[in-house]
């Protein structure tokens, strides 16, 4: 009941609205159904599960199993820089490098300020080596950030020397070397402030440990670099800090406690030494308070960093692999689509195919269309089934028809459409594309093109016969123009065809024609003769369904005299080609006029724009 109600509602709504308004709705519903089907296919595809749970990468080294894909992955960043590709998404390698560099600079500045802030607050002298390292690191960070900005946003406006530099530093090995230095600059900034106080002051030790924790976490940055390198550097930093905690860096006399006690120079050395020893024995060392806890914390932190670095690189590689797969599938789908469009264009004209994409049927009436039928009249004599069942004969016919099709590729014949082939008969028409006819300089320009195409077909046959041994094909063409109907038949295995009296007469012009010549109807003669084509008047031909019709032959005979000699007698072969029989030949017409017309006088009968003189 619900379905019937929905059908009634839909039919009522469709009756109340314009039919053209239904086309976008059909297209939208088709897209929604296609998207839903696409999602279902992805869910049911077992390859999608393998893509996430069994990625095509080595579990230990995280390199792609396919060596060519690994090579392409390593040079992908450099190719993007060389191609001067603009940033379109946040996942762009150049933009990702810019974000990594920006984060690295922020971490470096924050840690450097924190490390220099403590001596200023405690009124201690700044370390000269720390100042020098901070200055050098700041310059490196600034230069790297500048290059990252140019690569991400201004790659198309850089100088040639800068472009060469970017091409060099964007290589796989160069990026890892530079990345290792940049990602370690915050570490250098922190470790340069470590003094002997780390083993005596619990506050300073806690400060250094917190700073190193930030430094180690910062090694999760630069996801485009190898996770082995970043994790190994983070491990070295953690081990270095533990070494500073448990290994004595300075002698006891160089400790800050002795420097502070040295201010009381008026007291005795023994008393100050005894007091110092007693304070040292009473105050616990930082490694005694934080030693075990620091080992546990940094071990867990390093495990986390190793895990995160691995997952980040896996996700980054899967993202690249997905893009490669998507590009390959996109190219494959595009090739399939181009092939489908090519097949569709060879079955249906382009302007008809475009309309069939939005409608389910097509039919159109045309007022002025040219039609030709070209038959190889002696193909039956060439055909023999004794050799491979006639396969070789059809191969020869296919080559000849293919030569006809090649003519349609010429721009001058762009408004001609091949309709079909019926055995050894080739059918074509012009003027079916209304837009091309409207753009033409003359309304009958397509008829001239079609007639020239017919003449080119004869030249093709002559050239083809030069390669034939002991046999020559003979082409017979019928030409006519007028109104007709064009349309597509069927919903599967579509067939584009044309119908009407114009088509029937063109077919009769072929079947009643003469070998190696083009026979045209009287209406077509009126148009073509105004285009400076000269014809021979053949006479009246009895066309089945049409009665007597006057026909004309091209090319014109070169014989002199009022009436060409070849028209005075019609051979039995020509009579056999006539549908029914020849009604009245020019000889018969002249004979009927002999008693009343003198041969010394010439009377010209004017019929419209045509002149026949006897």
UniProtKB/TrEMBL annotation:
Q: Which cofactor does it need?
A: Mg(2+); Mn(2+)
Keyword annotations for this protein, in alphabetical order, are:
ATP-binding, cAMP biosynthesis, Lyase, Magnesium, Membrane, Metal-binding, Nucleotide-binding, Transmembrane, Transmembrane helix
* Enzyme class, spelled out: lyase
- One GO MF term: metal ion binding
Locations listed in the record: Membrane
Major localization listed first in the record, in broad terms: membrane
Q: How does it sit in the membrane?
A: Multi-pass membrane protein
Reply yes or no: does the keyword Ribonucleoprotein apply: no
GO cellular component terms given for this protein = plasma membrane
Name the GO terms of the biological process aspect: adenylate cyclase-activating G protein-coupled receptor signaling pathway; cAMP biosynthetic process; intracellular signal transduction
Q: What is its EC number?
A: 4.6.1.1
**Catalytic activity, reaction form:** ATP = 3',5'-cyclic AMP + diphosphate
Tagged with keyword Lyase:
yes
Q: Which CDD domains does this chain map to?
A: CHD (cd07302)
Transmembrane portions of the chain? 98-119, 131-153, 173-194, 200-220, 232-249, 289-308
Q: Which residues form the Guanylate cyclase domain?
A: 370-510
Question: Do you know which Pfam families this protein is assigned to?
Answer: Guanylate_cyc
Q: Which PROSITE patterns match?
A: GUANYLATE_CYCLASE_1 (PS00452), GUANYLATE_CYCLASE_2 (PS50125)
* PANTHER family (UniProt xref): ADENYLATE CYCLASE TYPE 1 (PTHR45627), ADENYLATE CYCLASE TYPE 9 (PTHR45627:SF8)
Q: Which family does it belong to?
A: Belongs to the adenylyl cyclase class-4/guanylyl cyclase family.
Instruction: Write the protein's name.
Output: adenylate cyclase
Q: Which organism is it from?
A: Takifugu bimaculatus
